[in-house]
Every structure is written in structure tokens, then in C-alpha cells.
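Human: We require from you a standard protein entry with sequence in single-letter code and fold as C-alpha cells, and nothing else.

Assistant:
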Amino acid sequence: MRLELGQVLINDVQFGKETKFDSGVLYVNKEELIALIKEDEHLKEVDVDIARPGESVRITPVKDVVEPRVKVEGQGGVFPGILSKVDVVGSGKTNVLKGCTVMTTGKIVGFQEGIVDMKGPGADYTPFSKTINVVLKCEPIDGLKQHDHEKAVRFAGFKAAAYLAETAKAVTPDKVEVYEVEPFLEGIKKYPNLPKVGYVQMLQTQGLLHDTYVYGVDAKQIVPTIMYPTEIMDGAIVSGNCVSACDKNTTYHHLNNPVIHDLLAVHGKELNFVGVIITNENVYLADKERSSNWTAKLAEYLGLDAVIISQEGFGNPDTDLIMNCKKIEQKGIKTVIITDEYAGRDGSSQSLADADDLANAVITGGNANEIIELPPMDKTIGSLDFVDIIAGGYDGSLHEDGSITVELQAITGATNEIGFNKMSVKGF
């Protein structure tokens, strides 16, 4: 698989009479975009706003974040199985609107949604304070069921991202990055002396709005399988979950997974990046045993020397994480796990709900229970009505002056478990 990602750098986003890209500026016809999103009969009201880095703006509750991308050459289209046919992606050319996102907000779907501040102390904890965000505020029709509500908002983000990305289809990118991974047997022959490394990516699939989609299929329904890393970079996996904002992998995270990017950067030089094993995080013990058994079996089958394992979520998925780690280690394969911690506000509680002596190489994205004070902002996109009930908040989190006291858990991407942010923990 050979994928060329063309970066079209976005310096600003402005509303205009026509949706187009011109000299580093993305112009958006607001009315046209709203009309597109309102084609969904499940949405009663839609509004669009723009939030730029450094502005006194608070966006909440944040549902998903999507990076606009368009297929220029090659098989498949953007978000296969969602907006495009179920063709295999991961090859050819894809253009990316770099530096901007589509962000969805509105009436809350589940309690685990997030906050993004574009300035102030909260901005230091979210990567999306550094991007220009086209924010959709979507209000569902009365009486809409939760899963239908979630689907409507999810699709709104994808449709808006695809709509904006079309402006860059014929644009010459500012920068082109090329990623290539050989089929397994070819890679073994080509790099016989390099250690064979794989990546186990755990996908949130606990149900009750805790869903991730692979080529449009709810990952609860899959058994662990092997993917080319470029498939994931090209939109094969998207978010549909409402887990705690701090460690939710938004669609943007999947498209820009730093584990995949970093492994590809040293592929064929320091190691042989064999591929990605995706697995789920179901709630029943039998499902956990099945998925972890399959994951370890695939790692052994590929003849891997080492594996990086990333988690999504906390608590119940900690069991899946440790099962994957333990069973792969028992195959004689070295592991490194990436997680975050829920160690209490003072940091003195047990960090994970499960543990094992074989989990002896751990990277942490920080303590999600740490308290932060967010000052008032001049403008709110979305609504402050849900601050007291989102995960990380409590009755009284929102103060009369508009300031907020919450755990980092409430900030989108704060303790991300694929290492997308800069949080960690020091031992003393």
C-alpha cells in the first residue's frame, strides 16, 4: 500500500458567498452548508460558526472532530462504508485541509462529551485549540432516540468535512507525505534483519453510544483483524462514541494516529512495521477472552518481535488492555502499552482497574482526575447547560461568572491514549 497525503495548508476560514479555497483561506457558504446538513430529517435546527486559535471562545459539548479530506486518486472514497462505497482505501492520493477541522456540538447525546477552549489554561490541554474549527451546532427533532441522535450528529460531521474538502480536490498541495508498507511476505524478505513490530489498536465498543466504526461496521461485531496502517490514515476507522472526552479518539485522532505515523517514519530503517491489528473492547468476559485470544494469536501468526498496544477509554477497557498485554507477552513478544490514568484528584489512587506483572513497559497520557479551573470566555459555541453533568463535571462546576471547575476528563483530547497530546506523569 502506497498513500500520498497532500497537505493543503489552511491559514484562515471565513464565511463567503462561495465555498472555495483561495490563497490559504477556506471560504464557506454558510447557508449552503446548513442546507446540506439539514437534509437529514432527524435534525430540527443547524447552525455553523468558526472558532480560531487565541479567540475567547468555548465550544461545548463537543461530540466529534473530523479533519476534512478528499480522495484525489486511487481506490475508494472518503469515509468508506459511511459516505462512500465499501472499497478498500489506503492507496493513491488524498488531499487534506491541514490546520482546520469540523467539530460537532449541540444538545447532548450522552453525558461523556467535552469542552474545547480556544485560549486560556484549558487550551493547553486540547490539540483542537490550535486548529481553526468549523463548528456545527445540531439540534435534533423532538423525541429522537439516543442512537438516532448520535448517528445524525456523526453523519453531519462527516458530510460537512467531505463538503469542505472538495474545495481542495484540484489544488496542488503545499506539502506531500508518502507512506508505504509492503505486503507481509514481501516485507519479511525486504527487511530480514530488522525487528518485526506491530501495533494493536484497541477500539472503543462498549455499546450504549460507545461505538467505533470500521468501514461502516460497528466494531462490536468484528473479531480482531489485520489492516494496513495506510487504511486507517485514509478514513477506514471513524468515531461514533460518547466516552469521556479526555481519552476519546475522535475521527481526527484516527486519521492522524501518531503511533502509526511514528512507526511508518522508521519503517525499513530501524524496524519492520508489519501492520496493525485492530481489536474491540466489549463488555462481556467471554467477548474479552475471545478478542484478546485472537489478538495474541495474530501477533504470533505474524511472527512479531514486539507490539505497541493502545487503549481507548478506562475502567472496563483496562481489563482488555491487560489481557492483550499479558497474552501477547506469554507468546514471547515484547509489549509496550499506552493508556492514561484515573488516579484520583490527588493522584494517590490506583491508576488502572487491572494490572499484571507482565505489563512492565507503560506510557501514560496523564491523570484524567486532575482538577483545572477554566476562566469565563467571551463567547460560547454550543451550550453551557450540560457542564454540570458531563464526565469530569459535577453539580456546581459551572459558576455564575461563566468560569468552570472540572477534571481534565472533561477536556477533549487532554489525556489521549494514542499519545496525541503532551500530557504524561512523572514518578518521584
Observations:
- The longest helix spans residues 146-165.
